Amino acid sequence: MRSLGRRTFILGGLAAASTLTYAGTALAASPFPFKLGVASGDPAADSVVLWTRLAPTPLNADGQGGMGTADVTVEWQIAKTSTFGTLIASGTAIARYADAHSVHVVAGGLAADTDYYYRFRAQGHISAVGRTRTAPAAGSAGRDLVMAFASCSHYEAGYFNAYRRIAEDQPGLILHLGDYIYEGGVGSSGVRQHLGTEIVSLADYRRRYALYKTDPDLQAAHAAAAWLVVPDDHEVENNYANMVRNDSSPVLTAAQWTARRTAAYKAYYENMPLRPSQAPSGNAIPLYRRVRWGSLATFHMLDTRQFRDDQACGDGWKVCADADLPARSLTGTAQESWLLDGLGQHLGTWDILGQQVFFARQFDAAGASSMDAWDGYRASRARIQQGWVDRGVRNPLVLTGDVHKSWASNLKADYANPNSATIGTELVCTSITSNGNGSGSTTIPNGATNPHIKFYSDQRGYVRTTITPSQVRADFRSVASVTEHGAAVSTTRSFVIAEGQPGLQQI
Ligand SMILES: [Fe+2]
């Protein structure tokens, strides 16, 4: 496709989606290829990733979305207004057949702490417009940051009302902490249904992402702000630990499991607004990374699946002496060193760990706890907590997904001693939909044995944070329903974490 000028691109934006005329030539109508929406991600002070994937018929069983085998040129534009009156940057990228016709454009040369709008054009069609924002420059706090974080969006469990409400909050940044898709086959009791059996092949994973991404509420959340994403287990398979499977179904040989993990990581990269530096290489994907937000915050995005030791005592909720073994690690040694090194650099006021599984201790009265969470890797947790204490990290804040309930905890120097120092804070978002409509209970499970846990709520939703140099405000947002499309959202509880004073203050 030849390059088109800005003027014709703008005219195209006003034309009908199905046919576009430019330079006196009518293009043959082709099906709209932007049915999976647009996204941006991993902002820096001078660049951001722009993503789209061409798929005119997204649910085709071959995972190719109705595209042919040819690579396709995609044009992109960035402007300061949604009318694209003055372009700031533009260019072309190749949507390759080998990458399911996805593109990951690193749009550079941008101004720090600035809002931008972007869009794509391909095959005579113009995409929806997305909004994004660059990070503040190093040394600058920039504007206050409204950041929403979420996890666990099971398509069958309900409508993505929470994604729509996140979009309406117009955050400057969105974190997704895993379980963006679920791998299971079609269920019998869902509000809506997956397609086919449990996903295993690359075609399966590509089609599953396409199914999720046809959801208009999810598309709205992507179009509203840049995302920072890390996967958890269900982007591959439930509770896998490095190369150890937790499930016995479907039956897979070791080689088939390796191929499955390779396919899952490839499809994850293809469908997320990640930088090309996060592209997988075979059976591995380099996902843990730091994203700096000027002097205000540093996001340390962790990968707690790819390098972990197997769950102790056969996984599950257990009393398990092996969970205390000092050699056990949830991060692997390289990631642990990388994290502690980054924390020791004091790059921003708030050191925010974006990660997957429950961090604070949660024991029941018998001493049992979740072997899939940090409670199953206690020495690993202790090394990281002590590591940030030793390095004088003033404001560590752990963000968590996975458990489909809202929680908030003070992190303790010694969980067995309620009077020990509070050395950090954890906020756990509930699910977007997983587990369906909640009970509404706010009674803290195992509250008596874990006095450092301060909040619990069983409803679906997300957490909206407002990050400033002096405090982080956290609003636990709950949607009234996931079985009714368009249900309202409200704030169940709010907390403040004051700079230099780890721990929750209820407001
Ligand atoms: Fe989940």
Task: Characterise this structure.
- The protein is built from seven helices and 26 strands.
- It has two domains: 6-133, Purple acid phosphatase-like, N-terminal (Immunoglobulin-like), CATH 2.60.40.380; 145-506, Alkaline phosphatase D (PhoD) (Purple Acid Phosphatase, chain A, domain 2, 4-Layer Sandwich), CATH 3.60.21.
- Strand 8 and strand 9 form a beta hairpin.
- The chain has helices at 6-14, 161-168, 202-213, 216-224, 254-271, 333-343, 378-390, and strands at residues 21-22, 25-26, 38-41, 48-53, 72-79, 87-95, 102-107, 115-122, 125-126, 130-133, 145-150, 173-176, 227-229, 289-293, 297-301, 317-318, 350-354, 369-370, 396-400, 406-412, 422-428, 453-457, 461-467, 471-479, 489-498, 501-506.
- With 507 residues, the chain is of the alpha+beta class.
- Residues 152, 179, 234, 402, 404, 434 line the site of fe (ii) ion.
- Residues 1-28 form the signal peptide.
- It holds the Pfam family PhoD_N.
Nutshell version of this structure?
This protein is of the alpha+beta class. It has helices at residues 6-14, 161-168, 202-213, 216-224, 254-271, 333-343, 378-390; strands spanning 21-22, 25-26, 38-41, 48-53, 72-79, 87-95, 102-107, 115-122, 125-126, 130-133, 145-150, 173-176, 227-229, 289-293, 297-301, 317-318, 350-354, 369-370, 396-400, 406-412, 422-428, 453-457, 461-467, 471-479, 489-498, 501-506.
Keyword list:
Purple Acid Phosphatase, chain A, domain 2, alpha+beta, disordered N terminus, seven-stranded mixed beta sheet, single chain, Immunoglobulin-like, signal, PhoD-like_MPP, 507 residues, 27% strand, EC 3.1.3.1, 16% helix, binds fe (ii) ion
